[in-house]
Amino acid sequence: MKKRLSLALCTILLMSLIAACGNNKDATESAAPAASDAAATVAPAEATAAPTAAPEKPVTISFMHFKSDATDAIQKIVDQFQKENPTITVEVTPVKFDDYYTLLKTKIASGDVIDVFSINYGSQTKLLVDGGYLEDLTSQPFLKEHFDEAVLSNQATDGKNYIMPLNSGPIAVFYNKKIFSDLGIEIPRTYDALMAAAKKIKESGKTPFALGWKDGWPLGMWAQRDLPSNTALVENMPDFFEKLETGAAKFADNPAMKTLLTHAKEYFDNGNKDQLGVDYNGAVDMFAKGDAAMMYVGTWPLADIQKKNPELYNTGMGYFPYPFSNDVEKNKLEFNPDASLAISSKSTHKEAALKFLSYMGTKEAGDMWVDNVKTLVFNKGAKTNLAPAVDELKQYIDAGQMYDSQSYLAKTTIAWGDQLNQDLQKFFFNKMTGEELIKDMDDWVAKNHK
C-alpha cells in the first residue's frame, strides 16, 4: 500500500486513540470540503525563527479562511487570541468555499499579501509550495509541541511542513432514525442496499437524499470521494491519478468512471426536487426539518441542526459510512483532514503570524474549535466528543476501519474536479452521454497535464 496512505491511516488511528478517551457530550461541526485550482509564481522563502513573545508595537495581520459557514464561531477564537495578545489585531476575511481558491489565486497574482490563510492539504498546498508562496514552518517548535509526529509527516510536502494541521473529521451519511424505523430500513452496508433503502423511502413519499448542489462543492465532495474510492480500492488502481497527472493514463482507462456515472445518476434521481437550485444551507434545512431521510456530508451541519431541531440532533439522527461499493470489507469510514493554516512567505508580519498559528495549535484553541466550529481537531489533548449521532461511528474508529480517499489525490495538481462537476450537471439533464463525459474529461486533462 502506498506510503502516503499509511501515513494517512496513522493520522486516523491517532484520532481514534484520542476519541476512545473522550467521554464528554459536546456537540460539533465544521465548514465545507473539496478543492479547486490555484497557482503562484513567487520566490521561495526561508524558514522564520520561532516567535518568543508578541510584538511590542501594535501590528495588524490578515487572516482569510474558507469556513464561511462558521464565521461567528471562528471569530470567537480570534477574539480570544486578541485578548491574550493585545498588541496583535487580526482582520478576518471569511470566503465561501466555491470562491475561495479563485480569490486566493487572484490575490497571489496581484501581490496582495494575506498573512495567514486556510488551505487544504494535497494539491492546493503542492501548488503554492512549488510557487514559493508558503513559509517553511518545519523548524517551528509549536508544531512538535502541539501535534503528533504522524500528523506532521502526513501533511508534509516534499519532506517539509509548510502548513499547520488544524481540523479533520468523517465524511459519511446522516440519517433520520424515525424514517428508517417506520419503513423497517436497516443501516445499509453496501451500495445496492443504500439504493434499495432510497427506493423504499421514495416510494413512501419521502425524499431519500438532501442535495444542495447549487453550490458546487457538495457535488464535488461526493464525486471526488466516490471516484478515488472505487478507483483505488475496487479497481485496484491506487496510482491512477498520479498517472493521469503526467498523461500516462486516461479516464477512459478507468472502470470506476462508469461506476461513478451510475452512482451519480442514481444519487441525483433519489434527491430532492431542483437539486441544482437548492444550496448547501437549503439541504441542511431540509434534513433538519425531517423532509429528507439522508444527507451525505461531514460533521459541518451539526450546529445548525442542533439549533433548528434539538430533538432530531439529540436522539433522532444517526451517522453511517457511505458504502461506495458492494464489498462490505472495503466500505470503511471515510476520514479526511480538512483545513490547515499557512503563512505567506511574503508576509511582513511573520512574528505576529507565527504567534497566531502557535495559539491555534494549543489545546485551548483546539477545544474552542470543537465547541464553536463543531469539528474534530489535530491539537494534542483537545476535546473529541462531537454529537450523539457521531457516536455511531465509534465502532469503526475503535476497530481502525477507516481510510482517506483523498490520499490518492494528494500528489496531483491538476484541478479536474471543477470540470467534472460541470460535465456531471450536463449528464444529469441528458445534455451529455456518459461516453461523451469521459471523452470530454480526457480532452480537458490532455490540455492541462504536465
Tags for this model:
single chain, 450 residues, alpha/beta, D-Maltodextrin-Binding Protein, domain 2, 2 domains, seven-stranded mixed sheet, five-stranded mixed sheet, 19 helices, 12 strands, 13% strand, disordered N terminus
Give a brief description:
The protein has 19 helices and 12 strands. It has 450 residues and is an alpha/beta fold.
* CATH C-level of the largest domain: Alpha Beta
What oligomeric state best describes the polypeptide chains here?
single chain
Shape: globular
Radius of gyration: 21 Å
> What portion of the residues fall into strands of 2 or more residues?
5-15%
The amount of helix comes to: 40-55%
At the fourth level of CATH, the homologous superfamily of the largest domain is Periplasmic binding protein-like II
Q: What is the typical, i.e. mean, pLDDT? A: 87
**Largest beta-sheet characterization:** 7 strands, mixed
CATH architecture of the largest domain: 3-Layer(aba) Sandwich
Structural class assignment: alpha/beta
Would you report the number of β strands? 12
